[in-house]
Specification:
Elements: H1 6-16, H2 24-44, H3 48-60, E1 66-67, E2 74-75, H4 77-90, H5 105-119, H6 123-142, E3 145-146, E4 151-152, H7 153-156, H8 161-177, H9 182-192, H10 201-205, H11 213-230, H12 245-250, H13 284-293, E5 302-309, H14 311-317, H15 321-325, H16 330-333, H17 337-346, H18 366-373, E6 375-379, H19 381-384, E7 393-399, E8 404-409, H20 422-433, H21 439-451, H22 458-462
Parallel strand pairs: 5-6
Antiparallel strand pairs: 1-2, 3-4, 5-7, 7-8
Helix pairs in contact: 1-9, 2-4, 2-5, 2-6, 2-20, 3-4, 4-5, 4-11, 5-6, 5-8, 5-11, 6-8, 8-9, 8-11, 9-11, 13-17, 17-18, 20-21
């Protein structure tokens, strides 16, 4: 037994982690998630909202400390981290931890890269900080996972745990890179609980604000660490106190004591699910089903499609039905079960479905809209029993002649049960990166991330991810 608080336990853990204490699987996973996330940032660079984020950060001003991925010039760590966090989450192609339903890499990697460049950290130091950030982010999210409900309390209450817990992870990682000791990292966490934010209504009803969430988590987490470094303090009972984190966000419906279980011996990072497809993760098993069914039936022969999914996901990918069958944009199509099924059935690229399948042109194409209109998303008890450890789908397609074809996809591709190989991760990375980099630059950057000596500075890798040539 110990009298230490949750934030003190996390801070002691964070201060003790070094690259040489990381298990091999954790170190390899951090490298691959760095590859994946930098690729996502490059892939999102051409988006209109990415330009908006860059202009916002440029207006803040300040010295050029860190790379803005896919863009010319450098910004202060706060600005570069904000922009890169926006980029990393903008394609809805970033990894997911289950059952917390967090997207950790989109805040942790941009936060670590920005501060590592600013502080002159080596790749080894950045990897250790990232490992800390992942553990803090995922563990604080999992403490609010309600097993009886089978869902995150954050999600049930409308909060975006990705950005809220991402702020905490970035604060711990940034504090470590800034050289804070355990006490300082504890204060950074205590400050960060007052800074996390994010409301998830955009998933359901549209708007582009969700793209900002991980960028703001990076910004807030770095500020929290900077404040702790300057001497500002946070409450020691920041997580479990009467008016603390879980009371404020979850109405006390959480178990913060679970954060310490296995801390430092059981690592979450290798278990985080990669996304093979650029769409809301709840749609992925239905996409797999569509990719299989398209080999057996032509689009014109499809009379109706009934997709059974976990009931809590229906409101995200199936409702409001009119918006899901006729999305406002390609981005909104990524959160639509009916449109994602149509995109997989009619398109296909990359690892099965590519960014181009969710274009604004496709959401105005009557071939896609007609098929999406024939798709119904319903709750299914068998899927409920598995969710949220997986996002299963049971798809029943009825043909024009009345034949019923069924596809059951009960585990997600990209997770431990169906992992992506390093070669598949490179396919994904190249598909994203070549949207702004020339082919040779893509190869050089990928090689640098996966093979660079860990004693070298992060700046050396990031210099390859800056100004695009095409």
């Amino acid at each position: 037994m110990t009298d230490r608080t949750v934030s003190q336990a996390l801070a002691l853990f964070a201060a003790d982690v070094r690259r040489d204490t990381l298990p091999d699987a954790v170190a390899a996973s951090v490298r691959e998630r760095l590859l994946d996330t930098v690729g996502l940032c490059l892939g999102a660079t051409p988006l209109e909202t990415s330009g908006m984020a860059r202009r916002v950060a440029q207006a803040w001003g300040g010295p050029g400390e860190s790379t803005v991925i896919g863009a010319a010039g450098r910004l202060p760590a706060l600005g570069a981290g904000f922009v890169n966090g926006v980029l990393a989450h903008s394609l809805d192609f970033d990894d997911t931890h289950l059952p917390s339903v967090l997207h950790p890499s989109a805040s942790i990697i941009p936060g670590v890269l920005a501060v590592a460049e600013q502080t002159g950290a080596s790749l080894a130091e950045a990897m250790a900080a990232a490992a800390v950030g992942y553990e803090v982010c995922v563990r604080t999210g999992m403490a609010a996972y309600d097993r009886s409900l089978g869902n995150s309390v954050f999600f049930e209450r409308g909060w975006h745990a990705t950005s809220i817990c991402g702020t905490l992870g970035v604060a711990a990682a940034a504090g470590k890179l800034m050289g804070l000791d355990a006490e300082g990292i504890g204060h950074a966490l205590g400050i960060a609980v007052s800074m996390g934010s994010g409301v998830i209504e955009g998933n359901r009803a549209g708007g582009s604000v969700k793209r900002l969430h991980c960028g703001w988590a990076v910004h807030a987490g770095i500020v929290a660490a900077q404040c702790a470094r300057a001497g500002i303090t946070g409450p020691p009972t920041a997580f479990e106190g009467r008016f603390a984190f879980y009371q404020a966000f979850c109405g006390g419906m959480a178990s913060p004591g679970e954060i310490e279980s296995g801390l430092g011996t059981s690592w979450c990072i290798p278990e985080i699910f990669y996304k093979p497809y650029p769409a809301n993760h709840f749609t992925h098993t239905a996409i797999d089903a569509a990719l299989s069914l398209r080999k057996r039936v032509a689009p014109a022969e499809v009379a109706s499609v009934r997709i059974g999914v976990a009931t809590p996901t229906v409101r995200t990918i199936g409702e409001p039905r009119q918006q899901k069958t006729r999305p406002q944009s390609g981005y909104h199509g990524q959160f639509s079960g009916p449109f994602a099924f149509a995109a997989a059935f009619l398109g296909g690229g990359g690892l099965g479905v590519a960014l181009e399948d969710f274009s604004d042109e496709n959401v105005r194409d009557e071939r896609y809209l007609s098929l999406a209109a024939r798709v119904e998303i319903v709750g299914d008890a068998e899927c409920d029993a598995i969710f949220p450890n997986q996002f299963p789908a049971i798809v029943r397609l009825t043909t024009m002649n009345g034949e019923v074809l069924e596809e059951r996809v009960m585990s997600n591709r990209g997770g431990p049960a169906r992992p992506l190989s390093r070669d598949e991760l490179l396919v994904k990375f190249r598909g994203n990166a070549r949207r702004v980099l020339a082919e040779r630059e893509v190869d050089d950057l990928g090689e640098a991330i996966l093979s660079m000596e860990e004693s070298r500075k992060v700046l050396e890798v990031m210099s390859l991810a800056g100004t695009p040539s095409i």
